[in-house]
Description:
heterodimer; A: alpha/beta; 7-stranded mixed sheet; 6-stranded mixed sheet; 21% strand; B: alpha/beta; binds iron/sulfur cluster
Amino acid sequence: MTTKKEVKSVSGITVRLAGDSGDGMQLLGTQLTNTSALAGNDVATFPDFPAEIRAPRGTRAGVSGFQVQFAQTEIFTPGDTLDALVVMNPAAMVTNIQDLRKGGILIANEDGFTEKDFKLAKVDANPLDATVINDSYRLIKVPMTQLTRTAVSEHGLSPKIADRCKNFFAMGLVYWLFGRSLDPTLRFIENKFGRKPDVASANVTALRAGWAYGETTEAFGESYQVDAADLKPGTYRNIMGNQALALGLVAASRLSNKDMFYGTYPITPASDILHELTKHKNFGVRTFQAEDEISAMCATIGAAFGGTMAVTASSGPGIALKAEAMGLGMMLELPMIVINVQRGGPSTGLPTKTEQSDLLQAMFGRNGESPLPIIAPQSPADCFDMAIEAWRIATECMVPVMILSDGYIANGSEPWKIPTTDSLSHIKIEHPAGIEAGEPFLPYLRDENLARPWAIPGTEGLMHRLGGLEKENETGNVSYDPANHQFMVETRAAKVANIADRIPDQEVFGESSGDLLVLSWGGTYGACHTAVQRCQQAGHRVSHTHLRYINPFPKNLGELMKGFDRVLVPELNMGQLRMLLRAKYLVDCIGFNKVQGKPFAVSELIEQIEAQLASPVAA
Amino acid sequence: MSLPVLKAADFASDQDVRWCPGCGDYAILAQMKKVLPELGVPREKIVFISGIGCSSRFPYYMNTYGMHSIHGRAPTFATGLKSTRPDLMVWVITGDGDALSIGGNHFIHVLRRNLDINIVLFNNRIYGLTKGQYSPTSSEGQVTKSTPMGSIDHPLNPLSVALAAEATFVARTLDAHVKHLGTVLKRASEHKGTSLVEVYQNCNVFNDGAMAYAQEKKQRADNVVELEHGKPLVFGKENEKGIRLVGNHLEIVNRSDVQDDDLLIHDEKDPNPSIQMMLARMRYPEMPEPIGVLRQVEGVATYNDQINDQVALAKQKQGEGELEKLFHSGDTWVVN
Ligand SMILES: Cc1ncc(C[n+]2csc(CCOP(=O)(O)OP(=O)(O)O)c2C)c(N)n1
Ligand code: SF4
Ligand SMILES: [Mg+2]
């Protein structure tokens, strides 16, 4: 379907869809994202939903939102301020309106704004009538419920089912407004509701009705078009972080010719990795839903002992439970992957919101001297690469490797350039072969990486006993010898520290010296990168460097920081990376810390960068 | 190819055994070394996994693969190992504190999953390694280092717990009755599914004689009933006493007063654990305590079989996984 109205070309659009948890906003958002990605736009998303499955209808607590930016240029964030906001009820409106830019489009489902809805949202009067709203935004009121009911009446559905189609009506309208093709969503409806043909055809009707409404209503004079982005040639798909992690793990298992064992206990926002992996049993994936995270961690160690690629994942509270066993994994010197998809803490905290506050837990959250390698993906698609990298490091060094993801990249999505399978390098793993019984075997004899042999049960002559008691160098026998303990502690630490020799040097975006370096890690890459890019365009002498390897740090990091008058470390925590940097390099980094369960906005980073540039350099 | 014939000594590791002299753990170690060669499983195919406690030092003394893990969690390590390496014979060695206190959660879950492993629970009714605090199996009123006025906890019975989880093999034996111990260990190893063997183990340092009523030969006949499948429950020095089921409880009778047909016939194969539970609940001094196999039911799928069957089925249905296909699933687009 093509519009007969005027079409205005824009370089990018940021839109948020907000409604009640039951209104299907996540579905709408995902569809809009996929459709935009298929149209060749660069996309970045930010789903934001409440922890309660069904918070009371119409209340502010029950508002679920999905933000997507699609653009014809390369983008790194889902956008700060909204060009358009779709709200299904007053609660959604009052909790989101502050992010809509002045002059932006506000589309409201008029039928969701009744006296009852005002009460539920705790607003005194109809917020749509407020002068400031009408003065500040292009408000378009659409009686979506009524229009949907009329449109689908021919399908003879119950009113309840009919009303459920209204998110597809909204979708049709949004698609019209941004010149999106209906085809991918029509295919989706066919797949999803194929077994309920009446529901499927009603949804199709609603979708088309929404589109037609945009085309005919006088409220919209024009629609918008965002051309395809100039992405690197290749085949793409849209991917969410957790999904990318799962695919990366499957790839790593294939690249190392190992079956995978994935032991876990459900927890937001890590569960989707389990949901994804369990679909791929035909890759030799065995998933184990344990009775708790301790069991999940220990089963993972058991599988590693047996010679399998072993992985576990959780979020902060579950990682806390795994701590003792992770220490054992480190002592046993077996390869495995431990994933923490971080969420807002402390304690149960903000389960569905993002934060980076488990970095020190990852570094130091175990008893005794028990360093582990830590890496952190920087974006949803990067989760794929970092999963493979984790397994490479784990097997090279015989050590559990931690991946620190977060809720923002786990649920966020972006286009992923699908790698050709021959571009992925093989991960070489060797198990020592059997020997005659009686010949000596030294389970803690180390190679050039300080890694011990991965001798697996079933191998003749290599019978040995592992355990958490300190071990004698080489023999692995229990040892309480003071000098041996010091030696073993130092050796285990050196093994991890030496990984720095085999990871890439830290790169800088921008000049290698200047007034300020923005140093970030993990899921904040997109916002920091975009902020620095804009500051550079504005003529500031600012550069950006983003850490994906956190323990150990890349070798050149200390030197790199010296090139700048100031180092600004923005983090979604109270300064955990900053503490590590200061301790290690004695550099007086400046923190910019946010703990609101929300990612950084580009604008607040720019503001902070400019404020720092305006203040004198600390002597 | 014929397997080399192994002897008990072949299963001894080169490490010095460090239990207290006179500890019941020695007898269990000796019986294990004696039983294993009879099974015909090569040493490299056997793995011992333990938690923490005196008993949990066991793997260090066996010349097999082994893992001395962390307190209470041995069944979970075994779950990861056996699920991915069903070819291995896996033994879990645990204590009463290890299995029933800190590891209580894992204990019931491994039993309900029916993982094909053997669990040997060394029950000395005390925390040995931490030097004598009461445990979940210590008797009410027991005075220990941490209960100078007597324990106020009601003790837990490992067999009842196992039966409640519908474990497929549940047995009890005694460190002092080595022949019985050997037989029960062997039967446990032969069972497909989780085997739980509770061993009354004397801690001569912190809880000496706690189970003397069963351990001491002289007292045993009157206080213990040896279960045998298909046989009536009889005990006493002259086998003069029997147990019969009356309504919903068990009672002791003199065999001279009743017909043997009236006695309870032990049925370890009964999938319904109700009567087995009644046996498990027989406690000294009111009743003799049962030893032997309380329950051994077959035909319940094991966790390790099922997890691997699903992988095989997925491969059959979806075909062997191909990365290329996986990466390109869903909507894709090409940028030139
Ligand atoms: C997490 C943790 N908590 C506490 C301990 C201390 N601890 C070691 S063994 C043990 C009790 C062992 O009792 P039991 O399982 O009955 O074994 P036994 O020594 O009697 O054979 C305790 C509490 C520990 N090692 N780890
Ligand atoms: S403390 Fe008790 S259980 Fe532990 S070794 Fe000594 S006698 Fe055995
Ligand atoms: Mg004990």
